[in-house]
Write a structure and sequence with these properties.
Blueprint lengths: L2 H17 L9 E3 L5 H7 L5 E4 L2 H5 L4 H9 L4 E4 L8 H13 L4 E6 L1 H15 L5 H4 L1 E2 L8 E6 L11 E5 L6 E5 L7 E3 L10 H20 L5 H23 L4 H21 L3 H13 L3 H16 L4 H11 L8 H18 L14 H12 L11 H10 L3
Parallel strand pairs: 1-9, 2-3, 2-4, 4-6, 5-8, 6-9
Antiparallel strand pairs: 7-8
Helix pairs in contact: 5-6, 8-9, 8-10, 8-12, 9-10, 9-13, 11-12, 11-15, 12-14, 13-14, 15-16
């Protein structure tokens, strides 16, 4: 990246960091069970609910407990279950129609990050009917209070239940972009381990490593705060203590609960301190090839950490201590190497490879431009890279 663009990026990031104490960040209120939702709905003087999920979640019967709870409480609800892995503008339009047809005034995003992102986007369109989603992309363009929004994560990974972001893919161009504004933060996050028990090991692993990526990228960035560093450390501790357990014993309720809280803490960290080039590259892959976001993050994480080099050694040393694989006396460079190796070993144990087979050489310049546009100047990464430099990661994933 040329000198003048670097100066622009770092100036932008510094200004944003200085503004952090004055911005209306908030954490969702944690709820321990879906059985508490009727009281929340009535307590907020709401009457009709739209549940946004996907066909797999509904097919597994995961929303049945929520449906029974709402029915017993006499709360009418409608369900939209066509959300795809990388939610599209078409998904949002279809769900919004159901929201209006049923006179809903509350929204529940039930599932992984895709369902929650779709729910956020529906809420944004509900309060800004004259604006398209593409007109809201970027930063602080929603600016209106959403309908009551409740997030129920069924995977311990995305952290979308805590964030001010909704990532949407244009149905026609396949361009993936983020909408970022404070009203998108859900009012409540329901961290109920019982809704995660039937997740298969592969999804459990990929989403757990997604949460790890959130915590790591938030921690190694240049816009951390005391609270985001604390949340990222807690997430890393919980993930390294529990991810192997939930992978091998999916019915372990306590480990499932700890992973949900790890995802929550990681989400709280990155919603303030942002992420980095792992996410930027992963988003472009999801938009172009529909690559699952958690999987893409897991594949990319050790490669990007290695590319940052000595710029992240000191911070990775602290994460290695949190993970229980180094101590204060371990030299920074060695601790960083131990941490990156631990991530690689984790991928190997979970059967996550080092390649994304869909990548085509002719797509790489376009994908790198998308990643560059997303990350720069917003993401306070340890080392700045332009589109040409980011092409390296796509080619690495082809080998």
């Amino acid at each position: 990246m040329n000198r003048f663009r670097k100066i622009y990026c770092r100036t932008f990031q510094t200004a944003f960091k200085l503004a952090l104490p004055f911005l209306p960040y908030r954490k969702p209120q944690i709820v321990g069970s879906v059985k508490e939702i009727p009281d929340i709905i009535r307590g907020n003087n709401k009457h009709r609910v739209l549940i946004i999920t996907d066909s797999i979640i509904r097919g597994l019967g995961l929303i049945s407990r929520l449906e029974r709870t709402l029915s017993k409480s006499g709360i009418p609800y409608a369900v939209y279950d066509k959300t795809v892995a990388n939610p599209t503008t078409a998904n949002v339009a279809e769900a919004l129609d159901i929201y209006h047809e049923n006179s809903c005034d509350a929204i529940i995003g039930f599932g992984g990050g895709s369902s929650m992102d779709c729910a956020k986007a529906v809420g944004a369109r509900a309060v800004k009917p004259k604006q398209s989603l593409s007109q809201m992309k970027g930063i602080l363009k929603v600016r209106k209070r959403l309908p009551l929004l409740i997030a129920i994560p069924t995977t311990a990974g995305t952290g979308s239940e805590t964030t001010l972001a909704a990532v949407i893919t244009d149905s026609e161009t396949r361009h993936k972009y983020a909408i970022n504004d404070f009203p998108l933060i859900p009012r409540y996050a329901v961290l109920d381990p019982k809704v995660t028990l039937s997740l298969p090991p592969s999804i459990t692993a990929a989403t757990g490593m997604d949460a790890l990526t959130h915590a790591v990228e938030a921690y190694i960035g240049r816009s951390t705060t005391i609270s985001t560093r604390r949340d990222a450390i807690r997430a890393v501790e919980l993930i390294f203590s529990n991810i192997d357990t939930v992978y091998s014993d999916g019915g372990n309720v306590n480990a499932r609960r700890d992973m949900l809280h790890a995802s929550f803490y990681a989400g709280c960290a990155f919603t303030k301190s942002y992420v980095g080039y792992v996410h930027a590259v992963a988003h472009s892959l999801g938009g172009e090839y529909n690559t699952a976001h958690g999987l893409a993050n897991a594949v990319l994480l050790p490669f990007v950490l290695e590319a940052y080099g000595s710029a992240v050694h000191k911070k990775l040393h602290k994460l290695a201590i949190a993970a229980g694989i180094a101590d204060k006396a371990t030299p920074h460079a060695i601790a960083a190497e131990l941490f990156i190796d631990a991530v690689r070993d984790m991928k190997c144990r979970f059967g996550i490879g080092d390649t994304i087979e869909e990548i085509r050489e002719e797509d790489i310049p376009k994908l790198a431009r998308y990643a560059d546009k997303e990350a720069n100047p917003l993401y306070p990464v340890p080392i700045l890279m332009n589109a040409k430099e980011l092409e390296y990661f796509y080619r690495l994933l082809m080998e």
